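User: Please check token order:
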Amino acid sequence: MIAELLEGTREFGVVLTLDKGIASVGCTARIDSVTKNYEDGRMDIETTGYRRFEISELIEERPFLSGQVNFFDDDFDPSPTPDSLIHKAIAGYFAIRSLKVGEHLPEPHLNDNQLSFQLAQAVTDVHVRQTILMSRNETERIKRLAEHFPLTAARERRKEHFRTLVPRNGHARLLPSS
């Protein structure tokens, strides 16, 4: 499948694998680049997501799953997302981004009418990502991110704190003096 996709600019579907099958909602993607090739034929790829879909029928005729899908977009919502909510989600994104040393999270395009999908790149919990993907309302997605980011940032700060304590057998008194 990847060989076919590398030959052109075709989109392919990406869905979350669950304990009992796959999610019913996914996203199309295109391969941007191959970042690493392995001797056994596997490869690491970078992709960009494009269109959301709901699976209407699975087709299992090839060595990989394929299916019939229905593409969807957001439902119409005449009320804009409150600025305070957008600012909270953006601040949370940058808080997470500052904690992700060595990882690249891109600069979001703040005037995008689906800003939530850019901000969701900082979400590592696949179930939260799936909820964002399934939502058909930008305000709902922004609200979810504004709630999620502070909790994640606090958890990341705690993990970093413990990373500094572990080499010292958990004793803060063994921290080097400055």
User: Anything to note?
Assistant: The longest strand covers residues 21-37. The chain has two domains: 2-72, 83-166. Strands lie at 12-18, 21-37, 43-59, 66-72. Residues 83-166 form one domain.
